[in-house]
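The passage that follows is intended for readers who have already worked through the single-chain material. We present the inputs for a multi-component assembly, then the predicted structure in tokenized form, and finally a short commentary. You are encouraged to pause after the input and sketch how you expect the pieces to fit together before reading on.
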Amino acid sequence: MLQRALGDAKVSAIGYGAMPLSVDGRPGAEDAIATVHAALDAGITLIDTADAYCLSSKETGHNERLVAEALRRRVADRAGIMVATKGGHTRGGDGTWDVDGRPEYLKRACDASLRALGVDVIDLYQFHRPDPVVPFEESAGALAELLAAGKIRRAGLSNVNIEQIEAARGVVPVTSVQNRLAPSFRSSLAEVRHCEAHGIAFLAWGPLGGMSIAASVGDRHPRFAEVARRHGVSPQRVALAWELSLADVVVPIPGSSRPATIIDSAAAVELELTDDDISLLDAD
Ligand SMILES: NC(=O)c1ccc[n+]([C@@H]2O[C@H](COP(=O)([O-])OP(=O)(O)OC[C@H]3O[C@@H](n4cnc5c(N)ncnc54)[C@H](OP(=O)(O)O)[C@@H]3O)[C@@H](O)[C@H]2O)c1
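Having made your guess, compare it with the prediction:
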């Protein structure tokens, strides 16, 4: 599998977003674990999770515990696998999403993630989403404290603009930025360029447009369907290959709730788009 840099480490150029294993429409636990194993078998070495990937506050950490269990059953693979989790989103008892960017909350959330993942140190800890009532530097400062305390190896941001990336870089080394990027969502290209200029990995979330529309990439984007026909592959694979072509710092993290889709997505690293294909897709 093609590798890309994540700070001082290398990870597979396609990561695996584990969210669909824990939210509405999720599979049973054994099918979920089989999906994580399929990702590993396909050569994926970056798994993205979050404490908030669950149905409600009653099961915070559901996704982290699932990923940990899947990895425990493959002990030999653990060392080479980077698990990236996040804190800063909360779930209500009814499943509503909220944010909490207070440093004291983030430090507590990190401790809970360490327990859910069953590790002493988290490979990559990402601040999930800016909290409008907490100065961004204060939230980023919590990441610096967690690094200094040895609880996390690397710090990342998510759902941020360039100004916020720079504000964070003033208080903590930023290894990665995780923003939305898809054929249907290109406004984050500015952050891609910024990350490229500063050697920050850009983890593309919702790279197929998101769980509800991923199946219809080809219907929504006729040029992606056309390039897919040219190469005899799925439009989803074309979308991921196109994202890889945007910059060497981009690592798409497609979600999957079953083995077949993550196996198809992982193969995007082998799809060689021509300059003509890329011009067509850029203009879609
Ligand atoms: N930082 C954030 O705020 C944030 C927000 C949202 C998501 N994320 C992360 O980003 C990851 C990806 O985002 P996402 O899951 O929302 O959206 P996505 O990756 O755009 O779409 C996920 C859906 O795509 C389908 N799929 C995957 N590969 C496919 C293929 N090759 N062919 C056909 N269908 C395919 C899967 O279907 P099946 O279910 O049938 O397998 C899955 O439900 C999440 O899992 C999560 O880790 C982060």
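Commentary: Residues 3-216+236-270 form a domain with the TIM Barrel fold (CATH 3.20.20.100). The chain has one domain: 3-216+236-270. How closely did your sketch match?
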